[in-house]
Design goal:
Blueprint: H1 2-8, H2 14-51, H3 59-86, H4 94-116, H5 120-151
Helix pairs in contact: 1-2, 1-4, 2-3, 3-4, 4-5
Organism: marine sediment metagenome
Pathway: Porphyrin-containing compound metabolism
Keywords: Cell membrane, Heme, Iron, Membrane, Metal-binding, Oxidoreductase, Transmembrane, Transmembrane helix
Length: about 160
Amino acid sequence: HRFYIEAEEKEEPARSILKNQYSLMCKRLWYIITWPSAVLATIFAVWLLILQPFWLESNWMIIKLGFVGLLFAYHWSCQIMYNQIDKGYLKYSSNSLRVWNEVATIILFACVFLVVLKTTLGWIFGVVGIVGVSVLLMLGIKLYKKIRVKNSWDEE
């Protein structure tokens, strides 16, 4: 989505060409990859829980399902953004979209940490790990923005 926003800053005819291409790419990504993946992952998750229902008695699984719920909320928020692009507007800055892109990464890391580190000590390391990954991602985004501005990568 951020490329769509960055295309807004270009002069015509580059702006129209890029926005049309990004809209097409976004549509393909959303309906050919993202939605089918979400549906298949949900089907397989439900199937797995039917085969292993005792996992629902574990605290780590309940917490993981909470993170999966957050991932679904993230997915729906991205659907709202997609709908805005489809209507020709998106009301976010490029940098805020770059940060928003990393939210899914953090949620997915949390899910993996919960599955791998199920003990209490593991959870402590997991929380520290998630916070550490979050901080590193945010620092990386800020560093990338500084380098981009310094080197004028946005200029042709």
